[in-house]
Design a protein that fits this description.
This protein is of the alpha/beta class and about 290 residues long. It is built from eleven helices and eight strands. The protein is globular, with a radius of gyration of 18 Å.
Amino acid sequence: MKKKSNFTITTIGQGFPAWAQTAVQVPFLFLIAWETVRTWIETRKTRPAKRCRTVSIVIPTRNEEHHIVRCIRSIAGNPHICEIIVVDAGSNDQTQSLAREAGAIVLIHERPIESGGGRGGQIKAGIDKASGDVVAVVHADTILPENEIDRVIAVLNRCPDIVGGAIGCRLDSSLTRFRFIELANSFRAAFLKISFGDQVQFFRRSPVVSQNLFPNIPIMEDVEFSLRLHRLGRRTYLFGNALASTRRWEQAGYRNVSWVIKNVAIYMVTRLRQRPDTSRIYRRYYGPYR
């Protein structure tokens, strides 16, 4: 018997005082009510889409030997998953061999960041290889309970106007400061429909591939893809229980929070008038910490 998700709207603000938890839940409850009404309206006037039955998982990696097996095993048992594709950027540890032993297809994608390298290029290579009706992008340090894939299939089949979205995540630390990051992530993905990669982005594969929508840029690929995806249809946010690592937040501290907020804002403004230099952003982000 599959384990049911224990993540609901009531976990938003978890760890805060009761009054604060109730307060932060209110806007999300209004959003859910609106989305429910909108779904009812859209399903009455939208032609049924091809039913989604299979899911390809794409996992970009680089030196992830300590996480990759746990990540693959967390989702490998779901019957909708037709393949797990690990796209490795030239790891010098055991990532590739461990992924193969865990049952994944391993692609090597080792390119300079100026010519299709970096995480966006890896993910795009995995999407081009994928054969499932749906693609879900999972980071190697994320644990995705297999029942979340069932929810993705269910919402896409129930709502033909929805082309994709993201699954909410918790951070694997009990510290209160990470609850604020979770809240900010949920607000951005739910209301602005701009998701980050550790929130497990998913989408119908065929229209994304046919229109070449996924950007092969080294960084900000998750933000750019969120912005592009609206061209195809409605996006959604599932309040899920993926478990994401806090290692990056702990490594760089609150510098990382301020850097992300500042540079995402700059990126979104810059792209209105010109193509942002993502290679430069990549070096600014990873240079000091690698």
